[in-house]
């Protein structure tokens, strides 16, 4: 590889990435701008070609996937909303790191595969006219005096917004046992603008927080969305090194992380790092049972 070609690539991609960031900010202000979508599509096409020429196949493949997604957007087959804009900025950050690694001759160890899954899911949704499946987590204020009633209102709202594929706690358990739950977790096929759905949830009295993200699966491992993977971590247990290794592998595949606290919860540095890493990967983290100082510390850190 000639150094002058690499120099030209570095300069060109630097300009393109800066322009992409500017265009995404413009798109955030006015999502309907077709000229912005067209320019982003052209930049992705150029990035794909130049990266392939340099032998940076991972960058080229990722750019190709984004190019296909923006082709759907510019043709009006998909709509732009705030959730999608946030996702684009996440893709831009990954693209920057991927290009930096390629230039240095290093292996990019980020979350490209996960992002590509989401991109393909969005492309498929736009092509088939199907609804996007979303993982929704709604947290009820701990001071609420009518948690069961609020939970039922949330469930009713989600039923009106789309098709509930799974929900925890189940509706019959919620009604029969009158659970004083503070969290509702559901997988829903949303039939409306996701921004309106989130706004509606936040406007329900005593709702403290709403988290929502797309649910996707690898094409080679298609499963019913009811099989959303979860991992339980019992903080009353002592985890050995081999246990932590297995837990790390499980967390990589998980969608939801459920934390259980006992009277004598333990929080080693290694375990804390695993939980924080899961949070950075946008896993849904829930306090499943118990509380205490460790739970309070994690809540203050914004883990759940």
What can you see in these coordinates?
There is one protein chain. With 304 residues, the chain is of the alpha/beta class. The protein has 3 domains: 3-128, Four Helix Bundle (Hemerythrin (Met), subunit A) (Up-down Bundle), CATH 1.20.120; 131-227, 2-Layer Sandwich (Alpha-Beta Plaits); 229-304, Double Stranded RNA Binding Domain (2-Layer Sandwich), CATH 3.30.160. It is 56% helix and 16% strand. The chain has 11 helices and 7 strands. The protein has helices spanning 3-29, 34-53, 57-74, 82-104, 112-128, 147-161, 171-177, 194-202, 241-253, 269-280, 293-300, and strands spanning 132-140, 162-168, 183-190, 207-214, 230-234, 256-260, 284-289. The chain has a 4-stranded antiparallel beta sheet. A 3-stranded parallel beta sheet has the order 5-6-7, covered by helices on one side. The longest helix is centred in the N-terminal third of the chain and has 27 residues, at 3-29.
* Overall strand count: 7
Radius of gyration: 22 Å
Individual helix count: 11
Low-pLDDT segments, ≥5 res: 217-228
Second CATH tier, the architecture of the largest domain: Up-down Bundle
| Largest sheet, spatial ordering of strands | 2-3-1-4
Name the shape in a single word.
globular
Task: List the secondary-structure elements in sequence, H or E.
Answer: HHHHHEHEHEHEEHEHEH
Specify the structural class. alpha/beta
The level 1 CATH classification of the largest domain is Mainly Alpha
Mean pLDDT: 80
Assembly state? single chain
Distance between the termini: 48 Å
CATH topology of the largest domain: Four Helix Bundle (Hemerythrin (Met), subunit A)
Largest sheet: 4 strands, antiparallel
What would you give as the CATH superfamily of the largest domain?
HPT domain
Strand content: 15-25%
Fraction of helical residues: 55-70%
Number of domain modules? 3
